[in-house]
Amino acid sequence: GAVLSDRQTQAIGLGELPDEATLRRALNHLPLSLRPVRLNRKDSLHWLIRLPDSFDGYLGGLSKGTRQSAQSFDVRIDILSEADDAAIRHYLTEGERISRMTYQWNVGQRLINDDATFDRFRKLAETGRLRCYLLSLDGKPCAFLRGTVEGRVYHYETPGFDPEYGSFSIGQIILLEAIRDLIENTGVEVFDFGTGGDASGYKSSFGTESIPRNSWMLVRRTRPQDLGRVQSQLV
Hints:
By secondary structure, the protein is α+β, with helices and mostly antiparallel strands. It is built from eight helices and eleven strands. The model has no long low-confidence stretch (mean pLDDT 88).
């Protein structure tokens, strides 16, 4: 209501909502002046991992091929969780180098070694919410995974790896090492892969539970515009 009191506002982006969410159900009871719009023809799957008591227990639920990808190499995993300026800067330096090699860099999902990111990481570490990982093979950092801890939930963010090592499944290795750490060294109970997923990608291989979701927005009925233009102006 507060947002729509500004007459310049044409739409409100609500992000991805599960069908059973309270906010999603509330869209069925809007005043006539507002129209809910479902943005995608097909639902996406929001994948989670309900972490068991032991890492072996988690591995036991994976396919044989997925398990083997994590057991083929001796690797080094550095965990970033403390407000250590040198460790944070090292992680960001290597992370940006790797991030620049990934396709995600060109679509805006970047890990950048700048002061704003450094300050964000330091504040997260000071409040016990930062937990990131850096994987090295033969002493060379070649993959990173980042995320935050909120209560009992680990929120996974976009990872990256050097494509030169793609055939070694290092993306899967660092993911499994992160899951091992969360099970053995933290009180995290749920690993949340975040938005975007389907029934055949790596999230489905490692996830234990999925929730169908779709993206929604609210549009004023009284001032209709082209949908694409409205989406570009989401609040």
